[in-house]
Task: inverse folding
């Protein structure tokens, strides 16, 4: 079919973030998911991550200023975001997501402080 666009995981993540829809976001995460912060090495489970994401998405001062998909296929998604935080800092954030069954099974982030 001409003009039919299948939403990628990146598209779905962006929509859930823009809508601040925690339930849609949570549905994109595999039950076995692990989240790793590069800066600290801390690892989080799906439930830990959803708890943090809920806090972020419900705070209007947590803003995804811009985002772009660097690369995505059936196994991996690499994206780069500019984020603003409630403490008025800004970061450039690189996210590398490993996929399983079309969902996030592992995500590692690295951030550079901009202000």
Result:
């Amino acid at each position: 079919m001409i003009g039919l666009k299948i939403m990628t995981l990146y598209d779905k993540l962006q929509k859930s973030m823009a809508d601040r829809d925690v339930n849609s976001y949570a549905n994109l995460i595999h039950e076995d998911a692990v989240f790793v912060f590069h800066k600290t090495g801390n690892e989080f489970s799906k439930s830990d991550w959803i708890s943090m994401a809920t806090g972020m998405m419900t705070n209007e001062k947590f803003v995804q200023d811009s985002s772009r998909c660097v690369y995505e296929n059936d196994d991996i998604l690499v994206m780069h975001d500019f984020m603003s935080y409630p403490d008025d800092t800004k970061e450039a954030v690189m996210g590398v997501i490993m996929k399983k069954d079309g969902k996030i099974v592992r995500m590692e982030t690295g951030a550079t402080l901009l202000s």
